[in-house]
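Hi L.,

As promised, 3-keto-5-aminohexanoate cleavage protein:
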Amino acid sequence: MIVQACINGARPADYHPNLPLTVDGMVRDGVASIEAGAAELHIHPRDDSGRESLEAVDDTIRAMRRACPGTLIGVSTGAWIEANAATTRARIAAWRERPDYASVNLSEPDAPAVMAILDRIGVGIEAGLATIADAKRLIALPDCPPLFRVLIEIEEQDINKADEIADGIAQVLADAGLSRPILLHGFDATVWHFVRRARERRWSTRVGLEDGPSKPDGTLSSGNAELVAAAVAIFAPNRWVS
């Protein structure tokens, strides 16, 4: 049961004045987030132009490892990053500085192939489920490799509907007997609602500028470290749970 920091995501440069888009910026925010209480980091490496890139994973992970030794670091494999399935596969297979885990969106057509490559190169798989259909697809995969974790990531902005989706995903997993660590998180309007729900369910959660810029009181945060500190404060009564 942890708080993960998701420090940048696919957000554009003008999204927040302190959005980290360079390697140095990601290292700075990664260190600050860990100091604020984050147990892990989830990052979207960028190239020199600021564009998301799977080729940039090697340099970014290398720098993050130097600055944050012993911290688990994950990346995204989102299909939009390279916008070509063959390129995505090739660039993941070519990683030399490998992350500890990588998220794979089960809504994407090539998800099974990406999962197979990650398994082959020894990178943990964080299965991203945004809908009940995603959960059903996951449990129906004929050759699903071992999962590092299940990521229940809800984009629906209506709280009641978002809860229904999250509960439906969890029920599909339970009915299938898929017992893996779960990380629950929201997006924009639902970020703090799902931080609290994760605490209630004794699941992990994440916060950061990828998911939303605002503190629990709705005011703009100064950046990732402040968001992490707020989430850790919500989790504080249960911080003894491993």
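The longest strand covers residues 124-129.

Thanks again for sending the construct details.

K.
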